[in-house]
Design goal:
The chain is an alpha/beta fold and 198 residues long. It is 26% helix and 32% strand. It has a single domain, classed as Vaccinia Virus protein VP39 (Rossmann fold). The protein is built from 5 helices and 9 strands. The radius of gyration is 16 Å and the shape is globular.
């Protein structure tokens, strides 16, 4: 079986809806086979959403490795003035993300683009968020962290969530080689949420 960050055209599509709740607010998303966490909102994304739900994220948000879109879409809905870009390498995930943008009436303030990391990213952002594909390996996810700096506006921040057991401590050490300010802004259920900025 391939990984969720790979495209598998041979895997038959079987879309379905899932309902979830964040901060007492109900959401319904469409998801499918062949994408990460197809049946529920994964715990890492939930923790990152909860951490950022009330924070000032500026005017522009990039969700890198968005999957079917819950992280970026829920944050955009909780920040009505933000412009959202969703990216993922998985083409099926991007089609779901586009459907979920429409489903949540985000209109022209949200877009989704297939991208291997930042390959097809063209904008500059106040906030970049990622629940990185740890199974893709350090070479991939460290690239997410390193390259984010080129796409952040002055004063912008990268936020990421990672399990302590999957390298949170070494991740913080790596971030500190790139950014002047790195802090853990939340910790729950074995996950750490880091903010990195200059």
């Amino acid at each position: 079986m391939g990984h969720y960050f790979e495209n598998n055209a041979d895997l038959a599509s079987k879309p379905h809806e899932i309902a979830l709740e964040v901060r007492g607010r109900a959401f319904t998303f469409v998801t499918d086979r062949g994408v990460f966490s197809k049946n529920h909102l994964d715990l890492g994304s939930r923790i990152l959403i909860e951490t950022l739900y009330d924070k000032d994220l500026g005017a522009s948000l990039l969700d890198l490795g968005c999957g079917w879109g819950p992280l970026g879409i829920i944050l955009a809905l909780s920040h009505p003035n933000i412009t959202l870009t969703l990216t993922d390498i998985n083409a099926r995930a991007l089609e779901l993300a586009k459907a979920n943008i429409i489903r949540h009436h985000l209109g022209a303030r949200a877009s989704a683009v297939v991208s291997d990391g930042y390959q097809n990213v063209t904008g500059m952002y106040d906030t970049i968020v990622t629940n990185p594909p740890v199974r893709a390996g350090k070479g991939v996810i460290y690239g997410f962290y390193r390259e984010a700096k080129r796409f952040l506006n002055p004063g912008g921040s990268l936020y990421l969530v990672i399990r302590k057991a999957q390298g949170a401590v070494s991740t913080m050490a790596y971030l500190q080689t790139i950014y002047r300010h790195v802090q853990m802004v939340d910790r729950a259920h074995g996950y750490h949420v880091y903010q990195a900025h200059d």
